[in-house]
């Protein structure tokens, strides 16, 4: 029989292993659909209180990863720990702490929205104490709530899905394209809701196609390509790592042998306008620039879209 | 073991149909008794039978006439295609619509993201199917019993026979329900499950007639589940009903164990 000291040692050792407190820890996760690759050797972890972005185009393995996290799919290999517990060991208790919004939210069409929420909440032990505030923030009207779900517009159904996922105040929200079909005002309301969750120490795993949204909301991102994680970093660090474009407009036409600049690579040159990729330190580049007949210079900051496209361009190459 | 929420919601969806089936099967059994008593069908059938050529009389056999006795008519009522179809619809519809159908519609994905075991959902659905079929068969029993009360002149039909026929029919239907559960557990489309289950049931049904009519095919008799439901023979006390029920029960257990295991472990596609 275990005594308290044994339990304490177990707790400490599992903390050292890094499983405890981490809302999500995925190791070597692989899923094949027959012979078709879903994801392969995917590993990442999500910290408590973090909004974690999960990016990738259609078919990259995003939804497969999410469905594995929710226990809708069985992995071929690898492990998933949620809050330090292996998912397969205590599915029911772990799901009490999770809120899930699928990419395509199709509940029972014949049910009225409010009846659906009432029906679903009976499966959870926590009360739906955030329901009213979410309904107000997402501007769901009494008519929306009493309508049959099949009669709701895509956007209203999506709002209902967000209420479904978050009304019980879960410790971990797994949201697949939460703002899909929502107008900009409601999108903003969703971001506010997510930040509020984060401020209260809740964790959000967010999959999205909308890169400015991820950039705005998330702290860290993972980019998945062809079933494998190709980047896993804080957004700011990711931006700093990637080479930036430098667009220079010269005062006169560039001759046939355009200038090579230190720490950078020439991408293209047309008339007086040249585009370089700055791969090294900018401090070494600046002195060279001062000596050139430059009319205009543009050095835009990377956005997530560039980074994302770069990763995908690399994949194609 | 069962989820009350899921059970009640699913029952609510099918309640009207179940009530309709309960009343229809009950009235049908009552009509069968009324028909036999009011028209003296046995004597009419004897007259017709005597006018058939000897070869046809031999082909139809004495069992043909037995159908027009009260016992035979009651047995025929529980073996009539209308009754079998109504019960088979319930047996097939519930697992097809609520496992494969809910995967297809996306609602099972939502349910399984909630703190509930897959087995619990599937078991609740099975219990609902099991009880729904029993309730409709009880409707038939009630129809027969009311008929016997209306026509007290009928004698020689013990209630135990009606009970055995109903019980045997119930096991036949839960066998159909069990293989539909199995089809549903490996599928993601309600339509395909319905096609497979209905197709297999029809195959068994026609096979049971084929083996009766064609001696060379009689070796296939054990293959069809309808071999294990012979209400006419039961009504004449000529059938080992308990053996039939045991065989059907074994089939139910085998299919349900496989179905529950598959449902608990399978991938739920998006």
Task: Describe the overall structure.
Chain A is an alpha/beta fold. Chain A is 36% helix and 27% strand. Chain A has helices at residues 4-17, 62-69, 91-96, 113-121, 131-137, 142-146, 154-166, 184-199, 211-217, 235-241, 282-290, 304-316; strands spanning 24-33, 36-46, 51-55, 77-82, 85-86, 98-101, 172-176, 203-207, 220-225, 228-234, 244-250, 264-270, 273-278, 294-298. Chain A has a 6-stranded mixed beta sheet, sandwiched between helices. In chain A, strands 2-1-4-5 form a 4-stranded antiparallel beta sheet, with helices on one face. Chain A has a 4-stranded antiparallel beta sheet with strand order 12-13-11-14, covered by helices on one side. In chain A, helix 8 (184-199) links the parallel strand 7 and strand 8. With 270 residues, chain B is mainly alpha-helical. The model of chain B has no long low-confidence stretch (mean pLDDT 90). At the A-B interface, helix 3 of A face helix 1 and helix 6 of B.
């Amino acid at each position: 029989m275990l005594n308290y000291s044994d339990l304490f040692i177990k707790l400490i050792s599992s903390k050292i292993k890094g499983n405890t407190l981490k809302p999500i820890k995925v190791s070597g996760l692989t899923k094949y659909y027959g012979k078709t690759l879903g994801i392969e050797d995917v590993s990442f972890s999500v910290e408590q209180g973090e909004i974690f972005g999960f990016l990738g185009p259609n078919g990259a393995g995003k939804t497969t990863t999410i469905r594995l996290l929710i226990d809708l799919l069985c992995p071929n290999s690898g492990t998933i720990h949620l809050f330090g517990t292996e998912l397969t060991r205590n599915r029911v208790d772990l799901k009490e702490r999770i809120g899930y919004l699928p990419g395509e939210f199709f509940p029972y069409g014949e049910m009225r929205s409010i009846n659906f929420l009432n029906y679903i909440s009976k499966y959870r032990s926590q009360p739906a104490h955030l329901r009213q505030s979410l309904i107000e923030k997402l501007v769901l009207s009494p008519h929306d709530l009493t309508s049959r779900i099949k009669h709701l517009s895509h956007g209203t159904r999506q709002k209902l899905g967000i209420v479904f996922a978050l009304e019980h105040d879960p410790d971990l929200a797994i949201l697949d394209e939460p703002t899909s079909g929502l107008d900009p005002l409601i999108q903003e309301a969703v971001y506010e809701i997510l930040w509020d969750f984060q401020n209260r120490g809740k964790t959000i795993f967010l999959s999205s196609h909308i890169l400015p949204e991820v950039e705005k909301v998330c702290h860290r991102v993972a980019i998945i390509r062809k079933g494998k994680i190709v980047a896993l970093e804080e957004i700011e660090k990711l931006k700093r790592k990637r080479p930036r474009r430098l667009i220079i407009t010269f005062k006169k036409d560039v001759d046939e042998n355009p200038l090579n600049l230190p720490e950078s690579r020439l991408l293209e040159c047309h008339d007086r306008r040249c585009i370089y990729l700055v791969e090294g330190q900018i401090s070494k580049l600046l002195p060279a620039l001062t000596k050139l007949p430059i009319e205009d210079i543009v050095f835009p900051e990377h956005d997530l879209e560039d980074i994302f496209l770069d990763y995908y361009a690399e994949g194609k190459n | 073991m069962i989820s009350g929420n899921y059970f009640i919601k699913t029952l609510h969806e099918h309640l009207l149909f179940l009530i309709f089936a309960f009343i229809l099967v009950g009235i049908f059994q009552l009509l069968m008794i009324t028909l036999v008593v009011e028209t003296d069908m046995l004597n009419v059938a004897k007259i017709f039978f005597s006018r058939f050529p000897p070869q046809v009389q031999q082909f139809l056999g004495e069992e043909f006439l037995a159908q027009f006795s009260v016992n035979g008519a009651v047995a025929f009522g529980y073996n009539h295609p209308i009754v079998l179809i109504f019960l088979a619809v319930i047996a097939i519809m519930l697992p097809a619509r609520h496992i494969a159908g809910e995967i297809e519609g996306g609602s099972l994905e939502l349910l399984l993201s909630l703190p509930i075991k897959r087995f619990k959902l599937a078991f609740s659905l099975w219990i609902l199917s099991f009880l729904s079929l029993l309730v409709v068969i009880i409707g038939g029993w009630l129809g027969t019993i009311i008929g016997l009360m209306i026509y007290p002149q009928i004698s020689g039909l013990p209630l135990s026979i009606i009970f055995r026929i109903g019980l045997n029919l119930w096991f036949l239907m839960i066998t159909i329900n069990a293989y539909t559960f199995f089809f549903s557990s490996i599928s993601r489309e309600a339509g395909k499950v319905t096609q497979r289950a209905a197709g297999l049931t029809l195959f068994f049904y026609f096979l049971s007639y084929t083996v009766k009519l064609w001696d060379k095919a009689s070796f296939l008799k054990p293959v069809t589940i309808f071999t294990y439901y012979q209400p006419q023979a039961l009504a004449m006390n000529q059938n080992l009903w308990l053996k039939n029920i045991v065989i059907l029960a074994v089939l139910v257990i085998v299919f349900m164990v496989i179905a529950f295991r598959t449902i608990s472990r399978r991938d739920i596609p998006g």
